[in-house]
Amino acid sequence: MYLGIDLGTSGLRALLTDDTGVPVASAEASYTVQNPHPGWSEQDPAQWLAALDSAMEALRDTVGYNQIRGIAVAGHMHGAVLLDAMDQVLRPCILWNDTRSAAEATTLDAASGVRDVSGNIVFPGFTAPKLLWVQRNEPEIIAKTAKVLLPAAYMNLHLTGRHVADMSDSAGTSWLDVGAREWSEKLLEAGHMRRDQMPDLVEGSARAGELRADLATRWGLSGAVTVAGGAGDNAAAACGTGVMAPGQGFVSLGTSGVVLTARDGFHPNPETAVHTFCHAIPDRWYQMGVMLSATDCMNWLGRITGRSPADLTAGLGDKLSAPGEVKFLPYLSGERTPHNSAALRGGFQGLSVLTTAEDMAIAVMEGVCYGLRDCLEALRSTGAELNSCLVIGGGSKSDYWVKLLATILDLPLKLPHGGEFGAALGAARLARLAVTGENPVDVIRAPEIAGTVYPDPSLRNGFKAGYADFRTQVAGLT
Predict the structure, then answer these.
(1) Cis peptide before 199 (omega within 30 of 0)
(2) What is the pLDDT of residues 420-456, one digit of tens each?
(3) 207-239 burial string, b = 16+ CB within 10 Å, else e?
(4) Is residue 433 a contact partner of residue 205, using CB atoms and an 8 Å limit?
């Protein structure tokens, strides 16, 4: 048995697979995010540990549970967990979607050689500018900081007692030489950090340590349990969907939006605001375009209209309509790819007294799809090419939204067959690799495809023009 843990922003999911990789049971536990000021997003790491205990208790009666041989954690990236010399948490974790360090990110991004070594723009959500903010605003905290861990690495510490992180997660800190896959003294110096404040590095599929005996006893596990390096959430999702080789990729219609593709080497192009990160598998990398608000835009519309997203889109069916008169810019929390702007904001255009909530819902879906088209074009500008890709995330359950996305991207989208294929499965696969030493290509495979959604040829030109209008509208704001 292997256990994959998906440490998400709003909850933890634990997935058990058997020795052949077939999922057998899962459990979930939720927690909260604190927003003490506009643009701030924090979380108490103690919630993660409580959620893990809850999930393990829920899985305990699963046949074969006590035979778990490997565990791996996939975590939301970029978060900063600050620890003192006794490994006590000094302040709440500053999360990936926290934008308080925009000024610090700009300063660090302008430092000589930072983009060249890290391969990426320093975004406000990355870890390094968070620590600059803490240095400037909470000097009493930074004076006590002995280690800085990402959320998944903090879970590794809890599981093993060791400070250890994987390459894919660490690539989002702006402290890692992403091409060399090692901490960079140049980047650490630029961020006023020290090497001894960093965890040890391992590949995501390598052994990070062994499960602490007290946890094994508490959870009712027998025998030695290997803990793998794990992964950042998107690298883990790539492992769960079998995205390992050039030309393979996925689009995620989740809270945030992602267009991701595997690469056969290190091909940074930070000017595009594309993220170039280490894969969770040795000697592989991936690139992705990221938009900060995707299905979250529909959740927002639901909150202000008092209707659920499902209710807002219930009458759409699956027949695609031509571009609507109402337009929407999906920048409720700023944007990463391709704009790199924490200050960019969303909005509607073309509203009238005749506009309905359904019209606004269609506009939101179209705006999100145009934002994902921006991500795709940014990826292509780096030399990456996608001829088709998987579509995952909560928004992929909407037939209308998937057809709209396929047409706006002008790309066939493959729908995975119902079942497991996300970050928790990817983590379980990494746990298996750390135990067995198998060839990753024999373990990390694509899911069964339920069907392929193709662009609507009758509406391709209409949405091509709609995307051009979208780009013109955005240009007036940036």
Answers:
(1) no
(2) 788 999 999 999 999 999 999 999 999 999 999 999 9
(3) bbbbbbeebbeebebeeebbbbbbbbbbbbbbb
(4) yes
Say if residue 47 is in the same domain as residue 186. yes
109 is catalytic: no
What end-to-end distance do the CA atoms of the chain give, in Å?
51
Q: What contacts 241, CB < 8 A, 6 or more positions away?
A: 250, 390, 392, 416, 421, 422, 426, 446, 447
The count of structural domains within the chain is 2
Please give the structure tokens belonging to residue 311.
Answer: 């209710």
Task: For residues 216 and 213, give the distance between their C-alpha atoms in angstroms, rounded to a whole number.
Answer: 5
User: Which of 229, 261, 277 is at the close of a domain?
Assistant: 229
Q: How many CB atoms lie within 10 A of CB 450?
A: 11
The letter for the amino acid at 198 is: M
| Alpha carbons 70 and 2: distance in angstroms, whole number | 5
Identify the pLDDT of residue 415: 94
The total number of residues shown for the chain amounts to 478
Whether the predicted pLDDT of 191 surpasses 90:
yes
What is the C-alpha to C-alpha distance for residues 469 and 464, in angstroms, rounded to an integer?
9
Q: Are 138 and 183 in contact (CB under 8 A)?
A: no
- Clarify whether residues 157 and 251 are in a common domain: no
Same domain? For 249 and 219 the reply is no
Quote the pTM value: 0.91
Query: Are residues 252 and 121 both part of a single domain?
Result: no
Q: Are residue 198 and residue 307 in the same domain, yes or no?
A: no
The pLDDT score that the predictor gives to residue 97 is 87
CB atoms within 10 A of CB 437: 10
User: Can you tell me the distance from the alpha carbon of 199 to that of 188, in angstroms, rounded to the nearest whole number?
Assistant: 13
Q: Tokens 């990221």 map to which residue?
A: 290
Cβ atoms < 10 Å from Cβ of 44: 16
Give 136-178 pLDDT, tens digit per residue.
999 999 999 999 999 999 999 999 999 999 999 999 999 999 9
Q: What is the CATH number of the domain that holds 29?
A: 3.30.420.40
Which of 177, 233, 296, 374 is labelled catalytic?
233
